[in-house]
Amino acid sequence: MMQLPGRTGLYVLPLCLGLVFLAASLTPSLIPRDWLVQGILGGIVMALGYLIGRTCISIWRLLELPEFHGRIAFITRVIACVPTAIVLWLCLANTRHWQNGIRERMDLELLENAHTIRMMALALAIFTVLVLLGFGLQWLFDRVRFRLYHIMPARTANVAGFLVTALALTILARDGVMNRVITGLDNSVTVAQKLFADAPPPPAARNLTGGEASLVDWGALGQPGRDYVLNGPTAKDITSFTGRDALTPIRVYVGRAQADTAQERADVALAELIRQGGFDREILIVAMPTGTGWMDPGAVDTVEYMHGGNVATVAVQYSYLQSPLALILETRTGLDQAEALISTIHTYWRDLPDEDRPRLYVHGLSLGAWSSMHGTDMFALLDDPINGALWAGPPFPSIRWQNVVASRNRDSPYIAPLLGEGRLVRFASHFQDAGGPEGWGNMRIIYLQYSSDPIVFFTSSSLFRKPEWMKEPPGPDVSPDMRFIPVVTQFQLAVDMALANTAPDGHGHSYFGADYVGPWVALTDPDDWTETDTARLIAYCRSGVKQGCDHLN
Fold first, then answer.
1. Where are the domains of the chain?
2. Helix (H), strand (E), coil (C) string for 169-207
């Protein structure tokens, strides 16, 4: 029987596969990467490729298949190494071109240097650390199974040793590292929220959330809530833009620390909304914030400007963590809060006389979109439906979003679906508007999503299967050089999700105030509003601060 060469030779083929994975990771994905991020990504996927190679060899040996030795083994290594070196060199030579292809489409400054040496040094360092960690785990597994050999058969001891090692690592990660990480995150964000004793003095105005007569505890509101309540446009700001008399919009916000349960917080929000006269306004929006409690000013300011401030918005905080962490660690909190808030507001609104109640809309961005989609009970709406919903950057796990996209017209693209005649659901993006206020049915739903948003278009099946959107021509801000590569593409998209908010306005997961204007016009059909007004408001937002239209005067 032929035998594989010694251990040094044994590592060559897995190492070649690891280097191919490293080379593949240099190809472009949705979000531009600098050398530091690329080095980290490259080191991780190189270690993964190496692990896959070692696993394949172990399976080969377990099956007792023929093994190579001598000259045949040498030739095999040469055959593997030469194309590997060529592929790696070609990918390294194209790295700057590929990254600049994305940056050019996002109007970013082009790279003059890809810092290839730094990137490769970092990738190799991370690869080395991960391989050493793997050897450590192998050593631990060997020690456990060797001891078990004294009391049970070898095969049984191998399985038992694996299970014992896996259990020990799980307990260590869950009760040691993970608990400390979660506790640290919770403590840090709680301090950043400036709750209770650390909160600044409450506003004196009686008509503001958290003010003198408010039912909402200012100390429990949290920094995102206080910013949202205090920094919206005033009647004077809106009049300055429109040239017409305006109202100061009503903004109700309840912090997570206000009460222990989601329903209690929803009840406080309803009571405060009634106190401020929110049901007397023309437009009422139930909004779900992102994981930290942040409300996108660009999403709310725009609709307030176009309706002359005759708008009330109510929101409740459900987490202190960033949306990705809240999604993983506090999955149910946002869903429970959305169910409680939307149901509570809708039930009260439903019982008001038709002629005396505002038009009711639901809104959410990112994790807020996911939770508010979940909390919008379509069966409850059959009796008395809301007027519409605007969901921006819907995260890929949302079953409702997935079902809507799957129901698109067969000839419409995945990134910009068309459903029927667009009477119920429409999609908008940075290159496609929502079609205006004409042609709708009784309820209007708009999804705002960017073609370069990995939080929308990530899919777990991309580990081995090309995503649907990669089978179509790329979006305007997606590189035409992006290619599907099994395993590697999923890790690229995972890194893209972590970087999604670093993209410039109007790309990735950075939703821009100007892009909300068209969808809000199509949804709410403001009185005496013209295309010229839309263009003016878009220009107004583009001249303002990042992600919003506030503080322009």
1. 7-190, 199-450+511-542
2. HHHHHHHHHHHHHHHHHHHHHHHHHCCHHHCCCCCCCCC
